[in-house]
Write the structure tokens for this entry.
Amino acid sequence: MTQDKNPNWFANNPLLRLNNEKDHHDFFHTSLNDPQSLLVPLWRGDPLIAGGKAAFLSAAAHEEFAKDALVLMLGVKDGRAHFAIDASPGPSSSTEEPTDAPFADIGQYMPIREAAGMISRDDLAIIGQARWLTEWHRRHSFCANCGAQTNIINGGAKRQCPACEAMHFPRTDPVAIVLAIHEGACLLGRSPHFPPGFLSALAGFVEAAETPEEAAKREIFEEAGVRLTNVRYQFSQPWPFPSSMMMGFIADAEGRALNLDTDEIVEAKWVSLEDIKALLNGEARGDIFLPPKFTIARHLLERWVGNG
Ligand SMILES: [Zn+2]
């Protein structure tokens, strides 16, 4: 079992993040005016897809966007700076439909989940970072400490409050997602917002002053009444909807008795290793269908059966 490479989509971002260079106002502006630099355009978080590929634009194209369009430094790849640009920016924008957005004529602004299977993993990771960062800036215009309007600094790596000088950094919300195992079967559940038959590993946000392992144990007990031991970290996945860091675990369950919190889980069952292998191979097993390949839950199942 190789564990060197993170198998998760949105992981393995190829950009070199240049936080030191971003400290320099000049670096940001010089890079933005470098014709080799690239823009990653998003309309309300959706990337521009053209010909089945992610459409990254020449940096010179930033003049086609609204003057107050949010432009954020992402990093550098092969010597080319990459910037996120919001094609659906603030109050002065009249861009209400993605078809009205700049460069909509060369492709389509498409939901990330739909685009994920078409575009390269590298581009998906870059787009995930762009969405995460633009969404954080969009939601964090005001200081959480004093309420004043904050300013973007370091090319978008953080915001600073001019009134109280507090620094605000992009938010990351850790989530523990855990595949509980008991004697050759794993526990999968369905939350109320999933369609019938769609089963996944159980997950929950890490709470204040809690370790992810503790969160994994607490969530599975709260949601399914199952006690866990030997909680083993596997890998993580940036999940930009809007800012979750999914931390994947495999753990041993003490028994199979279930006591569901039906507000959180409407259905849960133990599914055998053989059935999971078959389902991962695309074979039918009852009405069960597993999470898609861009989810960490899928990769926890792959790892459990020995594929990843
Ligand atoms: Zn403040």
